[in-house]
Request: fold
Amino acid sequence: MMRTPIFTHFAALLLVGVPLPVLAQQNAATQPIAQTAMPVPALVPAASQPAATAQAQSQVQAATEQRIAGMQSQLAITPAQMPQWTAFAQVMRENAQTTDTLFRQRAAGAPTMNASANMTSYAQISRAYADGTEKLAAAFQAFYGMLSDQQKQAADTLFRQQAAQAMQPQAVKPR
Reply:
């Protein structure tokens, strides 16, 4: 039986907001997007945890900003579209921060969680994911409505490529 990592279940959110992929800066219609997973921080001594957490948060923020800039470039956002784009990008940032915080809390507590606490933590992440995705979809709909036909085609292609990549089986290390 093939097991999948927890973040595979959140693939859609990874495509538009959390520890995010690095975009290929070429033609969106012909180039697939390169997906890179953010490493899960190793357990470090308590004295160095604030520095490690700050560094990891900075990496998530940088990946989010890179994702936003890549999409903005690939979709050729115009000045008239900037208010809707900015609102969409802000939801991406908020979703990335929220889910990153929840994953870190879960990782920090996992060694001492009982099964009930583990399920509660998973439910909390799932709820945040669902809520964030709804907010992101609403912001994207407003933005998408302002796109030209050519931009819509580029966005459609971009999202189809991302969905296809997210559906690829992930190799899992045996225990």
